[in-house]
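Renewal narrative, Specific Aim 1. Our central claim is that a sequence can be written position by position from structural information alone. The example that follows is taken directly from our test logs and has not been curated for this report. It begins with the structure tokens describing the chain, in the order in which they were read.
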């Protein structure tokens, strides 16, 4: 719980545009609760939970660094699978649009994450947010 609170404090120190991006990402994924018990909704919620666990583990070990993007890499599989589900949900308006939104928002997040992880691997290892003591 302590790690999660520290992580949240770091997020609240980010520039507002990044806070809004994280909120959009979280809300798009959490909208899955409205589509339960559909398999797609269950997978998205599970992926969100796994990502949170991965990021908390990375944060606890390395701090608020660009490597945190690794916490979303399992989304590559989720997005690929969701793309295959589009055909079977095409006539389902809101559900279809939600799947498209998850694919787009999580896909954009993965672009940011890949760039961040590459930058970390190339030597940018300083924390991106440092809290005042």
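The sequence written for that structure reads:
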């Amino acid at each position: 719980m302590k790690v999660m609170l520290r992580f949240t404090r770091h997020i609240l120190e980010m520039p507002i545009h990044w806070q809004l991006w994280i909120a959009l990402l979280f809300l798009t994924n959490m909208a899955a609760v409205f589509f339960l018990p559909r398999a797609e909704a269950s997978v998205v919620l599970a992926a969100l939970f796994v990502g949170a666990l991965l990021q908390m583990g990375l944060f606890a070990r390395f701090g608020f660094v660009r490597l945190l993007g690794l916490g979303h890499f399992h989304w590559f599989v989720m997005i690929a699978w969701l793309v295959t589900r589009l055909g079977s949900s095409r006539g389902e308006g809101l559900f279809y649009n939600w799947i498209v939104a998850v694919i787009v928002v999580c896909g954009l997040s993965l672009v940011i994450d890949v760039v961040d992880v590459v930058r970390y691997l190339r030597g940018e290892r300083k924390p991106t947010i440092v809290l005042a003591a």
